[in-house]
Protein: ER membrane protein complex subunit 10
Organism: Diacronema lutheri
Amino acid sequence: MRAVVLIALLVPSASSFDFVDFFAGEWQMDVVDPSQPPSLAEYRMQRDGHGGLSGVYVHAGKELSVTVEPDEGMPASGRFARADNSTIFTYAFSAHHAGALQLSQDVEKGTTFAVTSPSSFLLLVATRAGAAHADSPIVTKSWAGVRKAPQAAAAQQGARPKSLLRRYGFWLIVLILGLLGKQAYDAASAPGATGGAGGAKPASGPAKGGKSKKAD
C-alpha cells in the first residue's frame, strides 16, 4: 500500500493551486541549519493590492522585507523576491496525490517548496558549503512552517480530516528528500548556480534585503 502511495506522489499533474491565497497570513517556522542551533522564524504576509503579497521574514531579531509576485494569469507560478526586486527563488507548483501535495522546485536556486496541507509547508534549500566548489559538500537547510492560529483553524475548515503529512509523513519525507537530492545535484552542476534561497547567509534565513516599494 505504501509503495502505491509513493508512486501516486511521484506522478505530477496540472495544478490550479494559488500560492498567494495559501501564503497570505502569519506563519511560524522551525529552522534547521547545520551551521546554526535550531531556531524559530516567522513570515508575516499581507496582500499588496496588485495581486501579490508583501511582508516580512522575522528571524534572530531581524525583520527582512519580502514579496510574492505571481505570474499573470498563472496563480501556481511566480517568484519569491526581496523588496528590492531581486529574486530569492521562483516557484511553479505541480499537484501530486490528487492535489493533496503541491510541489515546486527551483533548480538554479536549489529550493524545494512542498505545501503539505492548507496550514503547513516545508521549504528545503540545498547549498554548496564554503566557496561553492564542485567538490564542496552539499548543505541542506529547512524551514517547516505552520499557519498561526486562528488562521490555521479557518484554513482547515472543509479540509480533509488528516493532512497528507500526518497520514504518510515518513514516506513523504523520503520522497521530498529524494527529489531534493536530484535537484541539489542538478543545482550544483548548473553554470552560475547560486545555491540557497537568494544566497542568504545562515544567520539571515531564506530572505534578505531592506524594505522598498515593489516594482510593477
